[in-house]
Specification:
- The structure is a homodimer of 462-residue chains.
- Chain A is an alpha+beta fold and 462 residues long.
- In chain A, 36% of the residues lie in helices and 20% in strands.
- Chain A contains 16 helices and 16 strands.
- In chain A, the strands form three sheets. Chain A has a seven-stranded antiparallel β-sheet, sandwiched between helices. A five-stranded antiparallel β-sheet of chain A has the order 5-6-9-7-8. The first copy, chain A, has a four-stranded mixed β-sheet with strand order 1-2-4-3, sandwiched between helices.
- In chain A, helix 1 (4-12) runs antiparallel to helix 3 and helix 8 (229-242) packs antiparallel against helix 10.
- The two termini of chain A are 30 Å apart.
- The interface between A and B is large, with 78 and 78 residues.
């Protein structure tokens, strides 16, 4: 603690909790990406909005950059501090502040883990329906910064849809209370939506008022085996028309093979090119009948090659494990991840084109596809061959991403569906957003963060 | 057509349709507000995005301001051209461009009337669920510019929720294709949401891709008589818990008196302080039973003083007329309208405080309250006494609005729920948005509209 800048920080924000141990610098300086060496100046752990504001004022004066930090479960390097930045961790600001039964809202500090918010909602008989696998570590603030999606988007939409109000500290040190929980508010530009998905580049989200939903209905789970992606889309259409879908996830035979190798139980005697895990609301006899009818329709029309409907919660969990276990099963191959989206209707053409391109140009790579059909969101994991060095692998994968970015541009897609741009996807942003859009984004950043104090180098180079 | 600026416009955009007849200038220069004398330079009626772009380039060079113009049904003066502006009417850009069954989207030119978009969706077995009374004249572009709400917000949300993609021409003349129909897209700031509700101050919305919903379920309508607003809120809670509400609208005895004087039929033998029109999904026996049970629960607990459930579509329409007929019944009093919102839970306290303030300070005015309970949206109509001159009335009403703005500030509300700020609410914006927020909005406008060509003087003075 001999750095004069930190002395000044403590003079500006008396009593601020700071960490400078090398182990802490390493722990707080990275997210779930592992491509950058953490090198933050220090870790600040403010306990109040006022302290956050003091830190931002100091950063502007001292010329130190701030990396806002939630659960650091991000996959795009948005929370990496590798350039001497101050990490501003929200972990001590993790309290549920308010529940309002009439408004059906929950107000939390930004460092509240997603799962804690979900449990708080459930304790009042309601639900916070944004959900994804890192729920125990990911924070509400971080999920807002990336407009996180997850497995329930087909039914509930993205994080954006559930933010009724935000308190933020801008890069200029202004505290803004945005929308304040109103349902209807046509009083000028909606800055709340500007902060959702801004990846910490405009300011720090310090509190959020979340909309809550009715508790989820009772559901059932189906696993389906399908002959092709085109047929998979037909099955999606048939199911969407007849059922209330809570999730509709697909994966390939390659993905299943890895999950089975990792210890899961084979669902069918034979293997098939594509699989779908569909979760659908039941709750009454009509819904049950509709689900069976949809299933039988698909079997009779040869759309589904094999299938199973869960008969118990345990079996439902077992079916889900085939989809949710993919990431863990692939981990040992240090997969290079892409998280892309196109319009739902464009998925078959995009998938066919890119699978052919990859097979032709990168036959040495095993590529695992899975994702969220209802959202047009495809996760593409390229597996590192055991014999290849990591640096060479990453370098080749970046060429794969360039190839993907080109296909996305042709098909009107996005290089990041739900992970954000961060550092990882920054080189490819211009395939998804036009030069004019990027120039406007940079202009907006200058308005809210005139000295470039907030998470510089993420999303774009200002 | 001797103005040299218009000659230059025609040289820049050959073949552009222009109108300069005094009758046209008057017709296109105003919206549904009647407080400003229209005085546009001319009316341009472009037929393509390229023509819109040409007009914007000309405006920047010629130093002429542009007022984007849809159906001009606005109530805040957002489309008024009283300062020699060029009105850019989208009325010729009124085609449905595309329907996509898989994406469930409809792409329309911005000048498409709301009702045409609704009918196009219905022709494909789907629905565009944003709906309000001026649907026949209001355009999709205009509804996006104000983030229009309406009577279905309690169920379907505001316009913002249904915009999957926007094509805009910015004030700098850039054509941006924002979000391009994607469900998931975390690739930087969501400029689409910046344009929704921007009231033409950042650019011109030229095309929109709208999300469509399942067709609305069969519904039934109830009219309820209630003893107080507090009880009304209890009834809302009881109904929301038990039924799928499609609308939950309230009005006062004063509103009903005017509607009855205008020719409607009295629903009950006695008069009561508050009334609710509730529309709820039926469709199956369980829903019917739940509706009856909710109604009986409220009767038994003395919450509802009287009530009727419609037995036919004709009766449902008759009940709705009591609510929807208010605006027309009041028209002869040249009412001064306020359209405000608070959080749903704050409505009783806000209403009690402002009703008391109004009765105390403006006893000479008859005030009619109605609105959307589920959205916290109250419409307040102050009626002009027959004996009062219009100018004096408006002057006094602006003091009423100042009083309302103060109450809204205390209760965390908004001076505009769904009409927008425009010219009418501009003096009161600072009660709803902080100085820092307004400064940021002005900064953002400068980024997208550097020469201040787009609808200057609306929303705020740049």
């Amino acid at each position: 603690m001999t750095d004069p800048r930190l002395e000044r920080l403590l003079a500006t924000v008396p009593g601020l909790r700071l960490k400078t141990d090398p182990a802490d610098l390493e722990h707080y300086g990275r997210d779930w990406t592992r491509r950058w060496t953490p090198a933050p100046l220090a870790i600040a752990l403010p306990g109040s909005v006022e302290e956050v504001r003091g830190i931002v004022h100091w950063a502007n004066q001292a010329g130190v950059a701030i990396v806002p930090s939630g659960g650091r479960t991000g996959l795009s390097g948005g929370a990496v501090a590798a350039q001497g930045e101050l990490v501003l961790s929200l972990e001590r600001m993790n309290r549920v502040l308010d529940f309002n039964a009439v408004d059906r809202t929950l107000t939390v500090q930004a460092g509240t883990p997603l799962q804690v918010a979900q449990e708080a909602a459930a304790s009042h008989g309601l639900a916070y329906p944004v959900d994804f696998a890192s729920r125990g570590s990911a924070t509400v603030g971080g999920s807002i910064a990336t407009n996180a999606g997850g497995i329930r988007v087909v039914r509930y939409g993205n994080t954006r849809e559930w933010v009724a109000g935000l308190t933020v500290v801008t890069g200029a040190g202004d505290v803004l209370e945005l929308n304040r929980g109103l349902v209807k508010n046509s009083s000028g530009y909606d800055l709340r939506h500007l902060f959702v998905g801004s990846e910490g580049t405009l300011g720090v989200v310090v509190e959020a008022t979340l909309r809550l939903s009715d508790p989820p209905p009772p559901t059932n789970v189906m696993l389906l085996a399908l002959p092709s992606f085109e047929v998979l889309m037909q099955v999606f259409a048939a199911f969407r028309e007849r059922l209330q879908l809570e999730a509709f996830e697909f994966f390939t035979d390659v993905a299943l093979r890895h999950v089975l190798a990792h210890g899961a139980q084979a669902p069918f005697a034979e293997t098939h090119p594509y699989y779908v895990v569909a979760e659908f609301a039941t709750g009454d006899e009509r819904a049950e009948t509709a689900a069976l009818a949809a299933f039988e329709y698909c079997l009779e029309h040869g759309l589904v090659l094999d299938g199973v409907i869960s008969q118990s919660d345990a079996q439902a969990a077992q079916l889900w494990r085939l989809r949710e276990g993919i990431t863990e099963a692939l981990a040992r191959y240090k997969p290079y991840k892409n998280d892309i989206s196109v319009r739902v209707s464009t998925m078959p053409a995009f998938l066919a084109e890119t699978q052919a391109l990859l097979a032709q140009q990168y036959p040495q790579f095993e590529v695992v596809w899975f994702g969220h059909i209802g959202d047009g969101n495809l996760h593409i994991n390229v597996l590192k061959p055991d014999t290849m060095e990591n640096d060479a692998f990453v370098a080749q994968c970046e060429q794969v991403t360039t190839l993907l970015a080109g296909a996305l541009e042709r098909h009107g897609g996005s290089i990041s569906a739900e992970h954000g741009i961060g550092l990882v996807k920054k080189p490819y942003l211009s395939g998804t957003r036009s030069d004019a859009e990027i120039a406007i984004m940079k202009g907006i950043k200058r308005v809210l963060d005139p000295n470039g104090a907030m998470n510089p180098g993420k999303l774009f180079d200002a």
